[in-house]
Specification:
By secondary structure, this protein is of the alpha/beta class. The protein is built from 10 helices and 16 strands. The protein has helices spanning 14-25, 47-57, 72-77, 84-93, 110-113, 127-136, 156-163, 202-209, 286-301, 321-330; strands at residues 3-6, 30-33, 38-43, 66-68, 98-103, 118-122, 140-141, 169-172, 183-186, 193-196, 214-215, 242-246, 261-266, 279-283, 307-312, 332-333. The strands form 2 sheets. The chain has an 11-stranded mixed sheet with strand order 1-8-2-3-7-4-6-5-9-10-11, sandwiched between helices. The structure holds threonylcarbamoyladenylate and magnesium ion.
């Protein structure tokens, strides 16, 4: 049975937080809102509890989990090295949507890191998340609270839809403000490398550490024990076939008139809404698009249409990197589709 309890995002009821923390300490699963997306939490130091996360999500055991902590000292407990860059970034961006990948300490069991020698850690900005972690008194492993390969949840309703019955308690604090997952930065090698773009940008990181930052390019096959499994080519797909295209690449868009579809327009395109679409929405700028993207995709997905079409700004338009990364993983180019639709 899954219980859903509403909590105030700024002043969560301590009694509820205590109950949730007790569930975590006894090996259960609690979903909670963070500023990025809802997480599916378990005690990171308890391998059996962490195994329940993989079961609930249907997640391949090769994909490591992010460990969430409530303060910098607890983050340092989880790692073997705390380089200057980590200290500068933690100071600047924590609590917030940045995950640092560092060599793991003995505190973090194999199952959390998929056997790798590194661990991803972050302090989430949401007060509910930090209070929960503090009361639990242990680091909390928490991937996004969706079934593997589905869209991340930005509301408690999204979590319930994917994980009803598989999670003990959902702390419902309303909608996530950032709306896409944290930036993942690998600090374990010689060059700081962004494995997953997010709200904290490469430029911001480079300025903070005074050192250039690399971007992991390309995607890896699903069978590999990947350096960053989040880089899988199609990772966050809706159930409805979903396509993308820029306004200009869709100039000759001419679907079979018998097919129903909905569109989501990102940015400020030359045209307005798309002809023929049963349902059309528009997200004007990158920050709004990040906050609303998954919610809109969930909504469109629920309509039972034949396909979805996301109209994107050109690749070189600044500010869209993180949102376009998620759109690419959720869709295929309209031009490259084969078969119907
Ligand atoms: O915003 C977020 O990061 C959310 C909230 C709940 O904190 N969590 C989240 O977790 O997105 P998940 O499991 O859905 O995505 C974690 C990403 C995956 O792409 C995973 O491969 C990568 O982080 N990751 C985790 N540990 C890693 C490690 N040691 N090395 C490389 N990549 C790692
Ligand atoms: Mg995820």
């Amino acid at each position: 049975m899954t219980r859903v309890v509403a909590v105030d995002p700024d002043r969560p009821d301590p009694e509820i937080i205590d109950q949730a923390a007790a569930i975590l300490r006894s090996g259960g699963l609690v979903a909670f809102g963070t500023e990025t997306v809802y997480g599916l939490g378990a005690d990171a130091t308890n391998p059996e509890a962490v195994a329940r996360i993989f079961d609930a999500k249907g997640r391949p055991p090769t994909n490591p989990l992010i460990v969430h902590v409530a303060d910098i000292d607890r983050a340092i407990d989880c790692v073997r090295a705390w380089p200057e860059a980590a200290a500068l970034l933690a100071d600047q961006f924590w609590p917030g949507p940045l995950t640092l990948v560092l060599p793991r300490s003995h505190l973090i069991p194999d199952i959390v890191t998929a056997g790798q020698e590194t661990v991803g850690v972050r302090i989430p900005a949401s007060c509910v998340a930090r209070e929960l972690i503090r009361h639990a008194g242990v680091p909390i492993a928490a991937p996004s609270a969706n079934r593997s390969n589905r869209i991340s949840p930005t509301s408690a309703a999204h979590v319930l839809r994917d994980l009803e019955g598989a999670v003990d308690l959902i702390l419902d604090f309303g909608l996530c403000s950032v709306g896409i997952e944290s930036t993942v930065l690998d600090l374990s090698g010689s060059t700081p490398t962004i494995l997953r773009p997010g709200a904290v940008t490469g430029d911001q990181i480079a300025v903070t550490i005074g050192w250039p930052v690399a971007h992991f390019a390309g995607s890896v096959g699903s069978s590999q024990v990947a350096a960053s499994p989040g880089q899988l080519a199609v990772h966050y797909a809706p159930r409805t076939p979903a396509y993308r295209g820029t306004w200009s690449s869709l100039a000759s868009f001419n679907p079979d008139p018998g097919l129903s579809f909905g569109t989501l327009v990102l940015g400020e395109p030359p045209g307005g809404y798309f002809p023929g679409a049963l349902r059309s929405g528009r997200l004007d700028n990158p920050a709004i698009a990040a906050t609303k993207l998954y919610d809109r995709l969930h909504e469109l997905d629920d309509l039972g249409l034949d396909f979805l079409l996301i109209i994107t700004p050109p690749d070189d338009e600044p500010g869209w990197l993180a949102v376009l990364d998620r759109v690419r993983r959720a869709t295929r180019p309209w031009d490259s589709r084969t078969g119907e639709p």
